[in-house]
Structures are given as structure tokens and as C-alpha cells.
Amino acid sequence: MSKVFISYGSKNRKVAEGLCTHLEAHGIPCWMAPRDISSGTYAGEITRAIKAADIFVVICSKETRESDHVKNEVNLAVSHTGLIVPYCLDDTPFDDDLEYYLSSKQRIFSQGDLEKDYQRIESIIREHRGEASVAAAASVTPALQPSRKNSLLLPLLCVAALLVAAGFFFWGQGKKGQSPEENPLPAVDTVILPTISQGESVKTAKPAVTPSRVVAADEDANTFDGTIIDGYPDGYGTYTFKKRRRIDMHDEKERWAEAGDYIDGTWKHGHLNYGNWCSADGTPKEYIVLGDNPDYKLDQQLGKCVKP
Fold first, then answer.
1. 161, 208, 224, 256: which could join 305 in a potential S-S bond, CB 3.0 to 4.6 Å?
2. Per the CATH hierarchy, to which homologous superfamily does domain 4-137 belong?
């Protein structure tokens, strides 16, 4: 089974992660960045994942209008994906770019209950794949499901019922005159039909990361909500600038972040690979792609960071 590609802007990451958790807990594999990016360039892995998916879910909101990478993903999906599902968190109209690609697609508008929204999207995915939903399967007991064995079940039950009735008749004839206490009915075992229970979402907590004493003592350092190794961000997380500084020494554009700016992205030993750069109030500034660079010491000259 190919995976469902989930496209989203950085401000809607929690909703995307919740949808991914729900679908995978119900047996529907998903692909979403940056979780499933293992190696190679960011753009290349995104392109390959969209081409391999048979369903593309794009989370739409006010922030989506300003996300160039979401628009690029939608553009690719139109050419390579069988089903595109726009999941709208609000009633913000599409801009011209998104309207061009999504105007003919059936939109799913949020009802304010994320779990119910996720269930509706799951039903659409299963319908597209010709699968029965988990909830529908749970409401059908094996005795009601059509099969060859069941075609013989009714005659056998009728014969069994006649034999039991005849036994009760002759047994009752021989027991006439006895009181109810002396003529008890035979015990009948309770028959429990098997059912299919609906799966439950499983939430996993992020492991706690403790900074070193040297780093923790640096109160003037920037903060990183993610894994910190030797005082430098390593892996996916949110880097927040406490003071104005250059974003990355390998950045040929020499971009500088202001105090309060943050980047949702992926780092390696203090070097930014890629991420969404936003101002303190959440306004997107730019999507930055720098890629891998082995000269990490060059970036580490800008100082260490601490946990927020």
C-alpha cells in the first residue's frame, strides 16, 4: 500500500501530526516532512514521496496562502497523485495559485472537532482505495458476513433447534408431577460473538533533553526546542533567536535574523539544512534550503544554544 502524503505549512504542524497519528493508528501509512526525510536533498525527497503516493492531503488555512513550498507540493501532486483532498481549517479563500489547482477538488471543512475531521478524511481515503472503514467493519459480526460457510449455517441451526425441542418434549413428559425445583431447566452456555474493536491513537512523548552545565549557564544564548548535542541543535526542532545574529555561516545570501525570529527546520551539529523562517509574530519570512555541509565548525562560531 502506498503512503498518504500530508502537505502543510509550519503553523499547522500540530494538526498535520495529529492527522498522521490518527491515520497510521488505523493502518494507513503516511509520509510527511521532515519526519520521513532520511538522506539526500529536501526537494528531491519531497518530489519522490509525492510521486509514490496515491493520495495527497493538503492542510489549508490562512497561512497556506503564504507558503511557497505547499504550493510547489500541490503543483506536483496534480500531475502525479490520484486523489487530492484539501482539508480547510478555516474559510480563507484560496489565492490565485491554489485556486487554479484546487478549485475542482472536493474540500473538507473543519467542524471544530479534529478527531471527527480525521475520521472523515480516513473514510474518504478508504473509499478511494475500495476499503471498508474500521468503524463499519466493527459493526458487522462474522455471522452476518456473506460466505459459503454461512449458506449452510441456517439449515444446520434449524435441525439443531428441532432436536433440542424434541429433547425438551420427551424430557418434560418423563418429569411430569415434579415441582419446578425438582425439574430445573438445563444450563445453557452463553455464546459471545467475536467483534472487531476500533484502534486507538497512540501518543508518544518526546524524550527529555538536558543541556550541559556550560551551555545552561549561558543566559544570553539562543534557544532550541529539540535535541541539543554539545550545545548545538541537532535534528528537527524550533530555533528561536534571542538577539540579532546571522542565520548560518554557509548562507551565501548572508541573511540575518532579528530578536524573536524563529526557524522550524532541521539542523546538524549547529548547521541549518532547511527550514521555515518566521518573525516573532508568526509571519512567514522565507523558506531556507542550505543542504548538508561537512564544515560544521564554521557555523559553531556563532555560539551555542539552550533549551527554552
1. 224
2. Toll/interleukin-1 receptor homology (TIR) domain (3.40.50.10140)
